[in-house]
Structure formats: C-alpha cells, structure tokens
Amino acid sequence: MLKLATLPNPHNPAAFIWELGRGGLFSTHGSPETLAEYHRVLASHPRFLDEVQESLELCYPLFTATAIAHEPDNRFLEVALAVQADYLITVNTARGHFDRKSYEAVRVVTPGEFLNQPRGQAYLRKLAE
C-alpha cells in the first residue's frame, strides 16, 4: 500500500514504487475515504488522479482507526490493516503521522527503505525486465 504524499517523479523512490504498483507487481489498495483524500491533494493533477483511481483495488474497512494523530492518515492505516498489507509505504513518517515502525503486522517504510530491502530489490529487477 502506497500513501502518496508527493507526486512521484523520475528522481525520487516514490516513482519506482508507483511504477511497481501500477505495473501490477504488487497490489495497491484504497477506500472511498482515501480516494477522497487523493481527490483533495491531487485536484490540480487530474491525469495522475485518474491513474491512481484506475490502479487501486477498493476495500471497505469495517472499523475506524485512531492510532495516528494526523486524522486523515488513519484512513490509510484502516485500508492497510483491512487488506492485511505487508507494508504501508509513505514519506509521512514525521511525528504525528506514521511515526511508528509498524501497526499490528503492517510495517511502515519510506519508499527508499522499501527499495533498499531484498524484497524491494527483487521488485525492481522485475520492473526492469
């Protein structure tokens, strides 16, 4: 699961993560609430917003998370927990956001951290094929 806080560009690791998900090398999930947040944040980038909407598998968490001080981030955590994601990949690891290394079994990593792990390296090799 990738929480987009900035637009991926060719010069940051989030771009590679986005391409991995968009290319179907791993699944990306969202909920109506996370899509609403993307609409708010990406309103001035309609083409990218369309890509996001087309790529996400929608889920409907049946609980409300409250573990994160920045309330909108809880919606992303709900999705990660509901789909039993291995990772929640985000650049928002500052205090009050995703400031823990994990929430239950979901590991929180930055795009760079994910890509530097053996699993991330394996995905990058697949993307290059």
Topology record:
Layout: E1 2-3, H1 13-22, E2 29-30, H2 32-41, H3 46-55, E3 57-58, H4 71-82, E4 87-90, E5 102-103, E6 106-109, H5 111-116, H6 118-128
Descriptive report:
- The structure is a single chain.
- This protein is an alpha/beta fold.
- It has one domain.
- The protein is 46% helix and 12% strand.
- The chain contains 6 helices and 6 strands; from the N terminus they run E-H-E-H-H-E-H-E-E-E-H-H.
- The strands form 2 sheets. The protein has a 4-stranded mixed sheet with strand order 1-4-6-5, sandwiched between helices.
- A hairpin with a 2-residue loop joins strand 5 and strand 6.
- The longest helix has 12 residues.
- The chain is globular, with a radius of gyration of 14 Å.
List keywords for this structure.
129 residues, alpha/beta, four-stranded mixed beta sheet, two-stranded parallel ribbon, 6 helices, 46% helix, globular
> Taking Cα atoms only, what radius of gyration do you get, to the nearest Å?
14 Å
Q: Number of helical segments?
A: 6
Shape call: globular
Distance between the termini: 22 Å
Mean pLDDT: 86
- Structurally, how many domains make up the residues? 1
Strand content: 5-15%
Share of helical residues: 40-55%
SSE pattern, N- to C-terminal: EHEHHEHEEEHH
Q: How would a textbook summarize the main sheet?
A: 4 strands, mixed
As laid out across the biggest beta sheet, the strand order is 1-4-6-5
Uncertain spans, ≥5 residues at pLDDT below 50? none
Secondary structural class = alpha/beta
Number of strands: 6
Compact description:
46% of the residues lie in helices and 12% in strands. By secondary structure, the protein is α/β, with parallel strands linked by helices. Strand 5 (102-103) and strand 6 (106-109) form a beta hairpin.
